[in-house]
Structure formats: C-alpha cells, structure tokens
Amino acid sequence: MNQHQIDLHQTETSSSDAHDRTTELNSQRWNRAKAQALADGENLTLTDAHWAVIVFLRRYYMKHGLPRSARTTADALNENFATQGGNQYLYQLFREGPITQGSRYANLRTPAYATDLSFGTRY
Known about the structure:
The chain is mainly alpha-helical. It has a single domain, classed as Arc Repressor Mutant, subunit A. About 55% of the residues lie in helices and about 5% in strands. It is built from six helices and two strands, in the order H-H-H-H-H-H-E-E. A two-stranded antiparallel ribbon has the order 1-2. The chain is globular. The two termini are about 25 Å apart.
C-alpha cells in the first residue's frame, strides 16, 4: 500500500511542532467516553470501524498538524481506508462527513473547507 505523501506547504504546521501538538492534545484530557457521549447525542454508537478512523485522524494530526484544506486529510483517509471501500465506506460510518464528524469525536479542530453546503461539499 502506498503511503500518502503530504506537501508541507499544505499544512498549518510542520512535523517539528509535534511536541506542541502532543501538549495540546494531552491538555484536552480527551478519552473514548467523551467521544461516545458526543456520539450518543447524535444517536450514533461508535464501533471499532469508527474508532479506526478517529485514531487515524488523531495520529494524522500529530504527524502533520492541521492541514490548510480538508481535502488533504480526505485524500489521506481515502487512501488509508481504500481496502474497506474508501470514501464510500467512510461516509457510511460518518454521514456528516468523516472529517467533520470524525474530527469532532477526535476532539480536533476541523480543517478549513471541511463543509461548504453551497457547493454540497461535506468532508
């Protein structure tokens, strides 16, 4: 499987800021129970498949920082979950968009342009 290549110009921060991102995430005291409580409010039970996406999003953020565009993360998600069905699979899990909804459960900032209802875009 090919590893998604990231252009450092497409991210808000570089890998050299990983310590700051680690500190940021640790200070949030995020855990699965908090994520499930959010999902419960949206009538969604988080399965192992959901958790795989959420964990991927958190690891991707740790490595690359917040991308300048949701498209960068969408491409990485699609590639990582290609064997399960890619985008179609991801949207079955997260009907509001794997990046928008997944980031909310992962307690991450949502990348720019994740939702643009005027164009019908919802990552």
